[in-house]
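From the shared-data thread, chain only:
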Amino acid sequence: MTYLDDLFSLTGRTAVVTGDLGSRDGVRAVADAVTAPFGEPDILVHSAGINIRPPYPDITEADWDATMMVNAFAPFLLGQRFAPRMAERGYGRLIHISSQQAHRAFVGSGVYGMSKGAVESLVRSEAEAWGGTGVTSNALVPGFGLTPLNARLPQEPGRVEALAARTIIGRNGEPEDFAGAAVFLASPSSGYVTGQSLFVDGGMSVH
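Structure, as tokens:
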């Protein structure tokens, strides 16, 4: 049994809501649907993202609009929807997933890197806006891990190994490496942590 198995075994009732974060109306519909099973949430984790990265000269306005909508504007809208009610209840956690490419350019950052830079600025603005209400906003900055979003990288010979070599620990990330940090940011233990970008990257960012 893995750490994630242990974590999810503690879950009580769950509900699945599907939707589209690629438009303003879609985000609002998802936000409304989320409240139906159990009411207003105390914790928001925005982990949805898209990774459109053609060669930089070939980036189109459509690429920009789609990427910024899902990666940056959707979390803004969700925070605007849920944070005021969290503040009324005196507890809330806004957790956004950022990227190494918010801080450094590599493997064709393009609009994706720009969108993640916007996410980290959003975190600081939300932290300031909701300071003192019991609502915090933070970003989780993961190191490289094999996910559907970067499925193309293993097709490049040596790329995955090179990314592991950029860490201090000497390996790429696994899902359980990031889960504990997310749980911390969602918990009362993180009440004095806000406006921060928490790197969980095996030391990649300092190597």
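Strands lie at 43-46, 92-97, 135-142, 197-200.
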